[in-house]
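Sequence design from tokenized structure. All designs in this work follow the same two-part layout: the structure record, then the generated sequence. An example of the structure record is given first.
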């Protein structure tokens, strides 16, 4: 079991970023292309990491190489709040 190491951070993608999903290991670049995410929006998608690498990517999924148990589970919720000119 891998426990998050060090602080968890939220960042944009970086060259060479990869994660393992149920279909195998893939680069974020290929995953974004497969999901038809426009290139102009790819750097806006949050990537959750710790000192050992990617834990998960918003709208893509969690990194299956980072096993989670009830003892080390962390729930991350993304909420989009629209500014209505206030």
């Amino acid at each position: 079991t891998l426990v998050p190491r060090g602080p968890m951070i939220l960042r944009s993608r970086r060259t060479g970023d990869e994660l393992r999903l149920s279909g195998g290991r893939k680069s974020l670049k290929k995953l974004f292309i497969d999901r038809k995410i426009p290139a102009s929006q790819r750097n806006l998608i949050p990537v959750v990491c710790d000192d050992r690498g990617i834990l998960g990517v918003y709208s893509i999924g969690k990194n299956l190489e980072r096993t989670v148990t009830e003892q080390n589970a962390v729930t991350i919720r993304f909420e989009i709040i629209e500014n209505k000119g206030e």
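The first strand starts at residue 9 and ends at 11. We note this feature because it recurs in several other targets discussed in the main text.
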